[in-house]
C-alpha cells in the first residue's frame, strides 16, 4: 500500500551554525559561548571544539549540491549572531552578512527554500559576560539582531524561526550546566526561560515590522511522557510538572501571555523579581507556525523515596524524585545517545499539539533524527538503524497527518555529521558522513532512502 504525504509537503534537512561552519576566527567573527565552553577542560568529550567542524563556511557550495541531489525542497540553517555582531552590540561585521547573503543566494539558485533560525545557541560571549539569557536586557538586544537580519535577508526569506529549543538554552545552559555557558543555578534558568519567551515575542514583532508578509515561528524540543502507574498521584504530579516545563511553558506564553500555574507554584520564591508588570502583554504574540524537534518519548515509572537526594543541577527546581528509566522491554531499542526509539511518539505528539493548541496554524518538524555508530566499509556507510528510524518516524507522521494534524514539512536532522555539543564529534546524526580530517562528504544509506521518499512524496 502506498503512503503519500500532502501535495506541496516541504521536505528538508537541517543544521546549525556552530555545529557545521567552522572558520571560528575568520572574517571578523566574534567569540561565542560555545567557543569558550568547548575550550574549557572537561566540558566536551575528547576536548573537541567547533573550530573547524565540517568546514561548511568554505564548502557550502558542495553541501548545497548534495542537497540538490537529495531533492530537498528546503534547508533550515542558523545564523551565527557573533558573525554579524561580534561583540553582541550594534557594530556590524559586513563580511558576516556577506557570507549569509552568498549562502542564501546559492540556495535559491538551486531551487532550495532557505529557512532561517536566528538563534541556535551560539551567543556572543560578550553578552554572556553581561549575564546572557538570565539578564533581561538581552531581550532588546535580540530584537535588534532580529531586525537587522530581517532588513538584510528578508527579501528572500519567507520562514523565520526565532529560537531553537529555548528549553535547552535555559535548563541545560543555566541549571543542568552540561551546555554553554555551564551554569548551575535554578533562578538563572527560570530567568532565562522567561527572557527567551519575551525574546521570541520581541523578535517576532521586529521581523514583522520590517517584513509584514513573512511567517515567524518558534522551534521547541517536545516529547510525550509514558506513565507506568497513573494511579499514583505523586507520579502524576511529577508528570504534569515535567509536561509544563518542557512542552507548555513557551506555547502558553505566546498563546495567552501566561505560564502554567503548576510550574509557577512550584518555583515559589525562586521566581522572585524575574517577572515584571505588563509582561503578559509582551509575551503574547501571533506565532505563524510551531517548529517541533522530536527524538524520543520519555518515561516516568515511579516516584523515588523522599530521602533520595535531588539531582544537582537538575532540569526543574524541585526534587526530581522520579524513576525515568525506560521499561526493560525497550532497553535494547536505544540510539547511540541512549534515547529510546519510539516512532509512534512523533505522530502522537503532533496530534496532541493540534488538540491542545488548535489555534496554531500549522506545525513543521524542524528536527528528527538519530545517532548510531556508523562504520565505513569500502567507502560505503550502510546505516540500516538510522534508515529504519527515519522510515518508521515518517510513517507515524503521515498517519497523524491523515488524521488531521496540520503538519506542513519535515526536516531531517541532520544533513551532515557534525559537532554534537557536549558529545563533540563522538556522536553522528548525519545523513551524510563527514571525515573530520579531510572533510570528505559521503552520503549514507539513509540519505539514499530519504532521496527516494522525497521523489515519491511518500513510500
Brief overview:
This protein is an alpha/beta fold. Helix content is 39%, strand content 15%. A hairpin with a 2-residue loop joins strand 12 (376-377) and strand 13.
Describe the secondary structure blueprint for this structure.
Elements: E1 10-14, H1 17-20, H2 33-38, H3 56-70, E2 74-78, H4 81-84, H5 94-109, E3 113-119, H6 125-129, H7 138-153, E4 159-164, H8 166-174, H9 186-210, E5 215-221, E6 225-227, H10 233-256, H11 261-267, H12 279-283, E7 289-293, E8 298-300, E9 302-303, E10 322-323, H13 344-356, E11 363-367, E12 376-377, E13 380-381, H14 384-402, E14 407-413, E15 432-434, E16 441-443, H15 445-456
Parallel strand pairs: 1-2, 1-14, 2-3, 3-4, 4-5, 5-7, 6-8, 7-11, 11-14
Antiparallel strand pairs: 9-10, 12-13, 15-16
Question: Any overview of this molecule?
Answer:
- The chain has a single domain (10-456), classed as Glycosidases (TIM Barrel), CATH 3.20.20.80.
- 39% of the residues lie in helices and 15% in strands.
- The protein is built from 15 helices and 16 strands.
- It has an 8-stranded parallel beta barrel with strand order 1-2-3-4-5-7-11-14, surrounded by 5 helices. A two-stranded parallel ribbon has the order 6-8.
- A hairpin with a 2-residue loop joins strand 12 and strand 13 (380-381).
- The relative contact order is 0.14.
- Its EC number is 3.2.1.21.
- Belongs to the glycosyl hydrolase 1 family.
